[in-house]
Fold each of these.
Amino acid sequence: MEIKLEANVLSANDRIAQENRRRLAEHGIFCLNLISSPGAGKTTLLERTCELLRGRLRVGVIEGDITTSLDADRIARHGVPAHQINTMGACHLDARMVQKALEKFALAELDLLIIENVGNLVCPADFDLGEDAKVVVLSVPEGDDKPAKYPAIFQRSAVLLLNKIDLLPQSNFDLARVRKDLEGINPGLRLMEVSALHGTGLDQWIDWLQGRVQAKRKG
Amino acid sequence: MEIKLEANVLSANDRIAQENRRRLAEHGIFCLNLISSPGAGKTTLLERTCELLRGRLRVGVIEGDITTSLDADRIARHGVPAHQINTMGACHLDARMVQKALEKFALAELDLLIIENVGNLVCPADFDLGEDAKVVVLSVPEGDDKPAKYPAIFQRSAVLLLNKIDLLPQSNFDLARVRKDLEGINPGLRLMEVSALHGTGLDQWIDWLQGRVQAKRKG
C-alpha cells in the first residue's frame, strides 16, 4: 500500500498547480493556459478577447515574459486587471510563479483568468499551472508541419486557435495536412480558424469561452 | 592559483563544445548554429542556401528536432549530407548530441557545417555547441517586439536573417523599431532582409558565408 501511495506523490510543481486549481475553483474561475511560439499572436488575440467579453465576463490576465512588461501594458489598456510575471530568463511559467501572481488579483471579482505563457512551443507544455484547459495558438506563417514536429502541446490542448488565417492565400500552408496530423495526435482538439488582427472567426472562440465559464460556475 | 584555475573550469557542455570546436577547426570547417522560433523559416532558408552554394562550397547539415526526420529529408533532397538529431523531447540541442552527430560525417569533405537547432527562441541560446557563430532567424509575422522580449539570442548572434520580408506590406511590423532595439542589444549584429521562399536578399548572406569560410581556412 505504501508503495502505491508513493507512486502517486506529485512533483513539487504539480502539487502547487493543484493548490492553484483548488483556489480558482473556490471562486468559480475558469482558467486557461495560452501557449504558442513567439509571435503567433497570443497578445493580440487576448486584446480582442478582452474587447469582445467586455460587459459579459469579468476577465483577468497573467502575462508571462522572460523580460519586459510590454504585453501586460497592452492588456491593461483594455481596462482589464493584468499582472506581469518576468521569468528572469526561464523559458516557461511554473505553478509557483502563478501562485504568487494570484495574490495580486481580487479573485472574487473574476469569471475568467487567462495566463499567457512565455513564447515557446516546447517547454511550457510540460508544466501544469493549475489551469482548466490549455489553448495552443499556431499561426499560418509558422507552417503546417508544426503539430507533427511539436506534438506534445497539441496533444494536451483543448483548443487550437489557427491564427493569421488571412495569410493562407499567400502561403503554402496545407490545412488538410494539419487536420490529418491532428487526428492522429489529438482527435478531440477543437480547431478554430481566426485572425486576431482582423477580428475574424472569433465568435466560436467567444462562445466556447462563455460556455466553459458557465459550466465552471455550475460545477 | 588553484582557485583561479577552478574558476575557469568549464561546465560539461562547454567542455564538449570546445572539443567539437577543436575538431571542426582541425578540418578547417566553419560551423553555424541556426536558431529561431518554430516556423520562422530555418529549413526553407537552408534549402535555398544549399542550392546557392552548390559547386561553390561543400556543405553539411545537422538537423535538430524533437521528433520526426521531416527536415533532414528536405535537406537530403538537395544532395547534401544531412543527419538528424532527435532530442526525444528536449527543447534544445546540446554539445554531446552534436559530438555524436559529427561521427556520421566525412569531415575532410566539408567546408561549412550548419546546425539547425530545435525551433525555440529561448533555450538554445544558452547552449554552446562548438559553433563559430550563431545566426538567428526572425520572420516578419512574428512581430517587431521579439528582440526586446527575447534579447539573449539576439545578443549572442553574429547575423540576424529577417525572413518573410515579402509580408512586410501587409503587417504592422516596424523595421525602424527593430533596428533601434538591436542597437541597444547588439550593435555589431548584421541584419539581412530576406525571403527564403521567394529567394530574395540572399546574395549578402551567401557572400557572408563564403567570406567566413575563406577566413576560417586561412586561420
Amino acid sequence: MSRPDTTHEFFLLTSLSIREKIEMNNNRFHFPSIKIGIVGGGQLGKMMVHKARKMGFYVTVLDPTPDCPAAQAGAEQIVGSFYDEDRLRELVEHSDVTTYDIEHTDTKVLQGLAEEGNKIYPSPVLLETIQDKLRQKDMLNKGSIPTARHEKVDRFDTSCLGKFGFPVVQKAQKGGYDGRGVVVIKNGDNLESIIRSESFIEEFIDFEKELAIMVARGIDGEIRCYPVTEMFFDERANICDMVVAPARIEKEIEEEARRVAIRCVEVLDGVGIFGIEMFLTRDKRVLVNEIAPRPHNSGHYTIEACLTCQFEQHIRAITGLPLGSTRLLCPAVMVNLLGEEGHHGHPAIEGLAKALSVEGLSFYFYGKKTTLPFKKMGHITILDENLGRAIEKAKEVKDFLRVKAEVNA
Amino acid sequence: MSRPDTTHEFFLLTSLSIREKIEMNNNRFHFPSIKIGIVGGGQLGKMMVHKARKMGFYVTVLDPTPDCPAAQAGAEQIVGSFYDEDRLRELVEHSDVTTYDIEHTDTKVLQGLAEEGNKIYPSPVLLETIQDKLRQKDMLNKGSIPTARHEKVDRFDTSCLGKFGFPVVQKAQKGGYDGRGVVVIKNGDNLESIIRSESFIEEFIDFEKELAIMVARGIDGEIRCYPVTEMFFDERANICDMVVAPARIEKEIEEEARRVAIRCVEVLDGVGIFGIEMFLTRDKRVLVNEIAPRPHNSGHYTIEACLTCQFEQHIRAITGLPLGSTRLLCPAVMVNLLGEEGHHGHPAIEGLAKALSVEGLSFYFYGKKTTLPFKKMGHITILDENLGRAIEKAKEVKDFLRVKAEVNA
C-alpha cells in the first residue's frame, strides 16, 4: 500500500491527471491526499481554501501580508512577495498542484518550475498572455473571438490616441486591476490624465449591459459554464459593486455569450475557472472585454445560488476531479462591500445587524486588517425567487451597510 | 471612538445582547469584533468555524487532539481536555461568547464562569440537564412534551427491567452518543449485555419513522424552525447514516412535529441551535426521543439546501444577531461517511472521483487523522429537485464511497 508521500511523488512524477492516478491507485485518496498551493491569499484564496478544506485537502498560500484572509480560513501561509523566486519555489515544491488568486506574479519563474515537472494550473504561459491585456486581446481575436477595436499606443499624441475618435478608452497593458490602469480620454485637448506606460487604446463602447460568465475547464477538457450575469460598476472608482444573476437578457444573447465564453477558455487552453467579462452593445453584439484566469468577483453568488460554487469548481478542475453541476438554484444578487471614501484604518462596519435581518442575505467579511477607499472588504449575497425583489433588497442594504475606519468616526 | 478592546469589555460587562450593543454603539462592528469560543473542535466545530470566519469573526476551540478538524478551518486551538478547568477558563475568558460542539464537558466549571459574567450559550445549566437523558426526559414531560414511557433502573433484574415488558430499551443516563449507551433488551433471559451504570428503561417504540428538526432560538427569544427530516440508522452500530429532507410525511404530522420541537427549545429556554430527534409512531403520535443542544448531524443538509445553514444560524443566535431564513431551496439527502468495519488507521477514501461525478453532490472530509469502524469521517449531501432520485443517488454512492485505512488494504 502506498503511503501518502509516495502518492505525492507518484503524483509529481507523472503527467496523468489526479483523477487518472486515483483510478490507477484503485480510486483511492489518502488524506490529506492533495496539497494545493495558491499564489495570493486574499478573499479569493480564502474562499478557495474553505472549499479545499471542506474536502479534506491541504492548502498553502504565498502572500506578503501576515495572517492574510486565506490563512484565516485554515491555509498554511508562506509570507513573501508574489515575485520572490525562492518563496514561489517553496510554495510550488510544497504542493501537488499550484494555482493563483491573483495574476500579478512572476510567470517566468513559475514557467521554469512547471518545466521541472511541477503542476501549475492555469499554465504560467496562459497567465503571461492574460497579464498583457493587449496580447490577451490579440490572442482572442486570432481565435476569432469578437472584442472592441484596439491599437497599441506608440505616441502620446492625438494623432495616435485619437485614431478611433473621442471619447476613447486607454488601458495599461500590464498591472491594472479593479479599475486601475484604465482611463477614458474624453477629448484630445486634455491629455494630462493619460497613461504613460505601455498601453493601448480601445474604441469606446456605448454598451447596453456589462455581462460576465464563469467557465470551468478540467485538465481533460471537460467544460462547465455558469449562468450569464450582469455586472454593475461604481463609477467613482470604476470597480464592480453589484452582480445580478441571471442576467436579464434574451435567450439568444445568453446562448451567444455562453458560446463565446467557452470559446475563450478553449482558445487559451485554460485549466481551472475563468471569469469572462463582456459588453453587450446596443446593437446586440457580444464583445469580450477581459478574462480573469481564476475565481472572479462576478462568481461569488455561486456559493449560495449554484449547486457547485466557482471556488470548489476551480479546486476540482486543477486537481483533475470531475466538475460539478453549475445549475442555478435561486436568483441572486451580490453586492461588494467597498471601503468608504475618506476612510483609512482598522475597519468598523455599520449596519450589520440590520443587514442580517434581510431575508436570504449572506454576509462575508474577508478579515483584512485595514480599510481603504473602494477596497474590497467583504460582500453580501441575497437570494430571492423574485430577482427584482432581490435587486431592491440589495440596493437598500447597499445604502446602510458601510465599511468605515474606526478613527474616522 | 471605542477601540476593539473596549468594545469587548463593554460586551462582557453588560447583559445586553450583542445586537443591542451594536445598536448602542451606532450599530458598529469592529473586526474581528466577536471572539467565539467552542468547547470541542470536531466536524461540528469545523463547520461552525467556517461560518464564523466567513463573517470575519475570530474563533478559539478547546480540543484534546492537536490540529483537530476545527483548527484546520482557521480556529485558534487550545489543546486540552473538555474537563480541564484551567483550559476551560482560558477558552471562556479569551472569548466574548462560548458555545459547544459536544455536550460532554464540565458544566459545573462552565456554570461558575457564567456566574462571573462570561457569556456561554446554551447555558451550562441547560447542558447539565441534557447530559442526563433521564433528567432531560423528565423536564420535557414537565413541559407536557410527549416522550416514550420510561423509568429509572434501580435494580438490574427482570422485575425492574421488564416493567414495560420485552423488548425494552435501556439507556445510560450519561455519556452516551452515536448509539453508545443504548441497548435493546430482547427478553428477560439474557441480561449479560445490559448497562450497569446509572440508567433507565424506555418502552420499545415500534416507530414508523425517526424524524429530526433543527430549531434555532435567539437570545431575545426569536425562533426559526427548519424543515422536518427523516433519519435513517446503520443498524450494526445504531448510528445515523442517512438524512432525507424534507420528511415524506403528512402536513398535519409536520406541523405537529414543528410545534413540539419549538416547545422543546422553549421549555429548555435554549439559546442557539438544537437538534430535536423524534419518533413517529405507527399510530401517528410524535414522541420526542432526545435533544442535541448544538448543530446536529440531521442538519448538515442545510449547508447546501437552506438559505441559512444550521452552523451560521447557531453563530447568529449565540452572538445576538438576527436569525436567518430557514427556507429549503431544494430537496436534499445527506449520507454519513462512516469508517469501514475492520479498518483502523490513517484514512484512505475509495470512490471519490466517481462520487464527485454525481450531479448535485457535495463532499465533506473532516480531516480526522485516524479512521475507526463507524467513526464519522465525512459526509456527502446530494441536492435534487426530485427527492426520490436524490435518495437513489445517495444509496448508489453509499455503496462505493468508502473510508478505509491504508494499512488494511
Amino acid sequence: MIYLDHAATTPLDSDVLKAMQPYFNKLFANSGSIHSAGQEALAGIDKARQQVAHFLNCETNEVIFTSGATESNNLALTGIVDASDIKKPHIITSNIEHPAILEVVKNLKNRGVEVTILPVEHDGIVNTNVVQKEIKDNTILISIMYANNEIGTVQPIKEIGELIKKINEKRKNKIYFHTDATQAAGYLNCDTKSLKTDLLSLSGHKIYGPKGIGVLFVKKGTKIKPFQYGGHQEFNLRAGTLNTPGIVGIGEALSIVKKNRDVNNKRVQHLRDKLIEKTLKEIEGSHLNGSKTKRLPNNANISFDKIEGESIMLNLDFEGIEVSTGSACASGSLSPSYVLLALGLSHLQAHGSIRFSFGKENTIEDVNKTVEALKKIIKRLRLISPIK
Amino acid sequence: MIYLDHAATTPLDSDVLKAMQPYFNKLFANSGSIHSAGQEALAGIDKARQQVAHFLNCETNEVIFTSGATESNNLALTGIVDASDIKKPHIITSNIEHPAILEVVKNLKNRGVEVTILPVEHDGIVNTNVVQKEIKDNTILISIMYANNEIGTVQPIKEIGELIKKINEKRKNKIYFHTDATQAAGYLNCDTKSLKTDLLSLSGHKIYGPKGIGVLFVKKGTKIKPFQYGGHQEFNLRAGTLNTPGIVGIGEALSIVKKNRDVNNKRVQHLRDKLIEKTLKEIEGSHLNGSKTKRLPNNANISFDKIEGESIMLNLDFEGIEVSTGSACASGSLSPSYVLLALGLSHLQAHGSIRFSFGKENTIEDVNKTVEALKKIIKRLRLISPIK
C-alpha cells in the first residue's frame, strides 16, 4: 500500500504507542483519584501537558484536553458565544473552514448569532484587509483555520493575530481570535504567543498521535464557558474522566513533531514537489489547486480535466495507492468540494480533483509509482469519459 | 497493590488491548475514507457496533459512539431539550445522579428548562410512585441512573420504563426515558427493550475497556439534536473522526462482560459480601450505606464513626490498598458526599465513609488483608480523633 492520505489521518507512531502502553493496564487508575495509583496517572498527564505547552509556547493551565479537534472547535466557538454579554454577538470565519467550524457556526446562527463568512482569494488565501473591513462593534470572535484540509493553503494567522491585537487596544469589547490548527500542527510553527491567538485547536490523529484526543489552547483570561458539563476536570472547562493513554500519546506526538519538524518538512516537500512537477508535466490537462507557495509541505491538490475524481481515486485504490477526493468527513457526498468552488473552480473542475497528502513514511518510489499509475488511469478514464 | 477502586476506573483487559492493537498503526485509516484502507477500518467499527447492539439488544443504527459517558449524558439531555418544541420543557432526575447528569441539568435550568430533582429513600432507591407524581404536561424527559457510582444502589429502571411507556400511551407529547448505565454496564442486564429506555449512556473505562470512548443508545424515532457539530459521522448525531481503536475496544469489552457476567458477578459479590460481613462484625461503629440487596455486586460503601474517610483512604493507600471516599470526579473537594447526605446521613457520618469497589482480579486474600489493615488504621485514627 502507498498511503497518500495523511490529511485524513496518520498511523500511530511506534514511539507514541510505546509511551502510551504503561497507561493501558499498569498506570491505569483515574487521574482524579487522590490515592497513589491515581497520582501516578496524573503524573503522566502532567508530563503530557508540559509537552503540549512547550509545543504551543504557553502555560500548562492554558492546555485543555478534549476528544479531538471537532470538540475543541465546538468548545471554542460555542464557549466564547455563551460567555459573551453582547446582546447579538457577531463572529467572523472563512468559507473554506472545515465542517467542524462551519457547522458550529451554522448552529450558532440558528441560535441568533450574527455571522460573516469571508470569501478567499483565487489562491485559497484569506485577505487580512477583508477581515479588517468586516469587524463590527459587536464582533466577539474571529476564527480562521491555520491550514486548509483539502488544498493545504496556509492562512496569514500571525498577520491577522497582530491586526486583531492592534484593534483590541482601541476597543472596549475584546475580539477573540481562534485558529483551527488541525492540519497545520504537524508542519507549522504553533507558537501561540507569536501567532497572537487566544484559542487554537488541534487533534492527535493528524500528527501520528492517537485518535479520540485533541487539545484546545485557551489563553489565560479568556471569557469562555464549558461545552460539556459534569466533573471538575480540565480547570472546570471540560468534564469527563481524563483519557490518560490518549493524553500521554498526544503529548509525545507533539514533542516528536517539534523535534523533527525541519527535517521532516524538507523531506515531504521534496516528494510533494516531485509529484506536482511530474504530474503537471506528464499529464495533459492537470492543474494544481491553491497557492503554490503558501501551502503545507505535504499537500498537493490537483484537478484533472474531463474526468471524475472519484473514479481516479477508486482506480488508484485498486493499484494499492490511497488518496482522497476531498475531506474524509464529506466522503460519500455527491456534491463537489465547497473549498474548490470557493477558489472559483467550476463544478466540473472541482469534481475532477484529487488530494495527495504525504507523510514521513513515503518515499520517492511512491511518487514515481503514483505518477505512472495516474498516467495510465487518466488515459483510460478519458477514453471512456462522456465529457469531451 | 490491592486495587479496590473499580468504580473509578478499571485496567484495560488484555484481550481488549489485543483486539485494539491492529487499529493503531496497521488498519489506521480514517473510517470515513472510501478507499479500501478506510473500509477496513470501517469493518472494525461495524463489528464493534454489532457487539454493542448485541449487548444492548438494539439495532446497530441505534448505537452512537461518543468520547465517554459524560458526553453521552450531555448529548442525551441537551439533545432532547434542543429538539423539543414544548415552550418550557420539564425534565425529571434524581438527587443522587452523577455530576455528568446534575451539572448538565443545572445548565439546562439556567437556559430556562423546568427541572424536578427527586429525592431518594433512605436506602438510596428512587420510588417509582414519586416519579409518577412529578410528571407534568410539559415533561419531556426523565433521567434516572441505573446504578449509583458511590453507593452502588440499583434503581428500578424496568419498573420506571414500564410506567413511562404506559403513561405515553395516553398522552400527546412523548416523555423520553434516559438512564446513565455507566456503573451498571459491567454487572447488570442492559437489554434496552426489556428496560424500556429510549436513551442509555455507558463508558468504556468502567468495564475493562479503553478510556475516552463511550456509547449513547438512541432508540429509533427519538427526536434528538446533535450536541457536537461538524462532519456527518454517527448518523449525523455525533461529529468527529471515529476513534477506531477505542470503538473496537468498547465493543470487545462489552462482549466479554456479557459472556462472563454471571460467573464474574458471583465471584465479586462473594468477595464484597465477605468484606462487609467481616468489617461490620470486627470494626465497631461501622455501617453499610445504601440498600443491602438492591446494589451492584462489587460495591460496598461503609461509614466509620468519628473519623474522616480521607484519613482512612490515605492510610490504606500507604499500605498499598487503593479505595475511594466517593467519586473520583469530586475528589479534592472538602464538602461531604451529596449522595450520602441524600440518604439522610449527617455531615459527620458522610465524611467518614469509604467506597470499596471490587473487580475481576481481586481475591479473598485482598479482602482479608484489607480488613486487617482497616482494623489497625481505624483503631489508630480513633485514638487521635478530635471527635468523641
